[in-house]
TrEMBL record:
It comes from the Eukaryota. GO terms for molecular function: mechanosensitive monoatomic ion channel activity. Residues 57-68 have a biased composition (Basic and acidic residues). InterPro entries: Piezo, Piezo_TM25-28. This is Piezo TM25-28 domain-containing protein. Residues 57-125 are annotated as: Disordered. One of its GO terms (cellular component) is membrane. Residues 101-115 have a biased composition (Basic residues). Pfam families: Piezo_TM25-28.
Amino acid sequence: MCFASLLLQRRVFMSYYFLHVVVDIKALKILASRGVELFHTTIVKTVKARIEEEKKSMDQLKRQEQKYKKGKERMLNLTQESGEGQDLQKLSEDDDENKKQTNRKGTAKKKKKKQWWQPWVDHAP
């Protein structure tokens, strides 16, 4: 009985179909691992590209801010030399406060816009 089962196992495991299935499964494992590696590298590549874009935009924003500060300092220096420095400093501080208030009002308007009678309608382009 045992000998017959051993012969049957040998015949099954040495058949061409079984060997073909084993080779096919190994090939699928290799291809799947390669696919995962490629997918992972594309994700890493896109993340690095986004980070690089953010760095560039932050650098550009910092340069614009420095340019604005230099211009403002130049204007303050010119006005201080002419004797009107204190008045302009007060005006610039008032302008900054006004900008902050308008920003707050702008966000309040945006919130009100969302509370429209059809909130499911999106008006953004």
